[in-house]
Amino acid sequence: MTRNARSNPAQAVEAVAGVRLDLWLWAARFFKTRSLAKHAIEHGRIEVGGQRAKASRTLREGDRLKIERGEEAFVVEVLALSDQRGPATVARTLYREDEASREARERQRALRAAARTGYRPPSSKPDKRARRLIRALGDIDAT
């Protein structure tokens, strides 16, 4: 890589024949570290073309990935290859996410937010009177 490519991250996306899967996932900012990407691959949370892959698998342009990260699932197509992590704006140019995948993620996020709206954690610990009421309510089931 030339000195100009280091100073301009947009030029860091080069035409490479292939890149390791764990490196690409890290460069595309799906995981904070390469070891987290490798861990996800080893536990079957990453699929390439519908099949489980190894971290050392060579990724090529046009490959389709299914990435499960926590409660989110992404289905993306690889548009460009990079083995260096750059800014998020450059990382977004490395892949294109399916519309169905994006809509499903947004729906799940909305469901999780709706499930949390009804619960409000108490602002402080219960006082002596509240503790007595809690214990009294607990005794109802004992009879």
UniProtKB/TrEMBL annotation:
GO BP terms in the entry: cellular response to heat
SMART domains: S4
Biased composition annotated in UniProt, kind: Basic and acidic residues: 98-109
GO molecular function: aminoacyl-tRNA ligase activity; DNA binding; ribosomal large subunit binding; single-stranded RNA binding
Keyword set, alphabetical order: Aminoacyl-tRNA synthetase, DNA-binding, Ligase, RNA-binding
Start and end residues of each RNA-binding S4 domain: 19-80
Keyword Ribosomal protein set for record: no
Region (Disordered): 98-143
Record family assignment: Belongs to the HSP15 family.
Name recorded for this polypeptide: Heat shock protein 15
